[in-house]
Amino acid sequence: MYIMENTMWETLEEFVEWYKKEGFPIRPPFEDPVYVTDISYSYVLFRQGQYQAELYLVRPNTSSPDHNHPGVENIVMIWGGDIHTRQNGKHLDLTKEYQTASETGTNRLFGVCGEKLDDRGTHALIVGDKGGAFLSLEKWPEGVKPNSVTINWSGDPVDPGHLKIIQPLEKTYEME
After folding, report:
1. Complete DSSP assignment for 14-25
2. Which residues pair with 54 in a beta bridge?
């Protein structure tokens, strides 16, 4: 069990390296770890202070509109499937060079990380025939209670139900 008195990371990149090195520890928070839209399910696997790892399972042949997550830094780590992204209007195909199994038998996409994202640009997810799985590794602002980047969303929603759960970070999730 990973219980730490103080957060040991100063940057999101340090958290990502620690999380990988420790073998992707799982310690979901008690409060609201599952979030659902028409295109995905997410589950907060690990949270410590302002850092968390959120697993996304995405339906085949779906996409999100361009959006960002105000105040939150995140790095997307691919776990598998047919996933592509668009970052600041540029389409990035993450699957062409990974169409064979690795020497350990895993998907070659497993563990591939995108660049750090923040609210200065936009990004979108595009998922093909096989669906997809990825981690959103996140650093939330000081004084803000982390929840999910599914909720902390700026841009068009993925579906009408998603519109109902999007909430501004600064109004709803200040720490008590």
Report:
1. HHHHHHHHTT--
2. 44, 136
The string of DSSP codes covering 122-147 is: -EEEEEEEEEEEEEEEEEPPTTB---
Tens of pLDDT, residues 129-161 = 989 999 999 999 998 999 999 999 999 999 998
Q: Please tell me the distance from the alpha carbon of residue 22 to that of residue 112, in angstroms, as a whole number.
A: 16
Structure tokens at 85: 């992204």
How far is Cα 77 from Cα 50, in angstroms, rounded to an integer? 18
**CA dist., res. 151 & res. 137, Å (int):** 15
Q: Which fold has domain 12-167?
A: Jelly Rolls (2.60.120)
**Strand-strand pairing, 90-93 and 73-87:** antiparallel
Candidates 69, 76, 77, 75; CA nearest to 144 is 69
Q: DSSP string covering the chain, please?
A: ----SS---SSHHHHHHHHHHTT---B--SS--EEE-SSEEEEEEEEETTEEEEEEEE-TTEE--SEE-TT-EEEEEEEEEEEEEEETTEEEE-SGGG-SB-TTSSBTTTT-B---B-TTS-EEEEEEEEEEEEEEEEEPPTTB----TTTS-EE--SSHHHHHH---HHHH-B--
CB 66 within 8 A of CB 32: no
Sketch the domain layout of the chain as residue ranges.
12-167
| pTM > 0.90 | no
